[in-house]
Amino acid sequence: AQSVTQLDSQVPVFEEAPVELRCNYSSSVSVYLFWYVQYPNQGLQLLLKYLSGSTLVKSINGFEAEFNKSQTSFHLRKPSVHISDTAEYFCAVSGQNFVFGPGTRLSVLP
Amino acid sequence: GAVVSQHPSRVICKSGTSVKIECRSLDFQATTMFWYRQFPKQSLMLMATSNEGSKATYEQGVEKDKFLINHASLTLSTLTVTSAHPEDSSFYICSATLAGDSTDTQYFGPGTRLTVL
Question: What DSSP designation does A52 have?
Fold first, then answer.
């Protein structure tokens, strides 16, 4: 069975500081990896995904994530966050089935 | 591309009534649509998976007679909450995958907030 772990349920960070949201997964088959973002009272938006090729994937709003097969991780990073990045972030894997992590609430403080 | 809409965005109903929520893929054909339920400050709970023209597959613990799912076309799936009760109040989100996409990337609708009085 597949599983996804997001160790940090909440991450408070000051504006313009760097942030890393951690995601680890377990699976017996090859997987595709995703990060979704959910702003308050909204649905989920696909932020970025790793399918194959370069292990570093980037989104248009400055986030990036790196697939590390040996560590079974897909951590999300941003070098400088904005207030508008405050949201819930979900890591997900697709392989045998589609599994979401429990989410990490990023709060960007002024 | 890959836009999914839901209607209504918010609905309030009386206990005992039924509520229908629509999920549409606006610019693509969706092989499969998913229905999730999300409680406050929690992750998504998959309720069911539906494929066009066939019966939905429900997750364990989800009452199929209470949450009726119809996937009549490649662009529309509906979730009907029958005889709604206050404990059915929640945020319901649908998602869809593109026909022919082997990565199973899910594209989500904006969600529907159901409040049962």
Answer: S
Q: How far is B73 from chain A (nearest CA, A)?
A: 22
CB contact under 8 A, A44 and B108: yes
- The Cα of B66 is separated from the nearest Cα of chain A by a number of Å equal to 23
Query: Residue B106 and residue A98: Cβ atoms within 8 Å?
Result: yes
Q: Measured between beta carbons, which residues in chain B are less than 8 angstroms from residue A98? A: 34, 46, 104, 106
CA distance B47 to B57: 9
Q: pLDDT tens digits for A3-19?
A: 999 999 999 999 999 99
- B108 to A94: CB separation less than 8 angstroms, yes or no: no
Q: Is the peptide bond before A79 cis (omega within 30 degrees of 0)?
A: no
Strands (E), B26-82: 30-38, 44-51, 57-58, 67-73, 76-81
User: How many angstroms separate the CA atoms of A105 and A72, rounded?
Assistant: 22
pLDDT digits (tens, 9 = 90+) for A47-91: 999 998 899 999 988 999 999 999 999 999 999 999 999 999 999
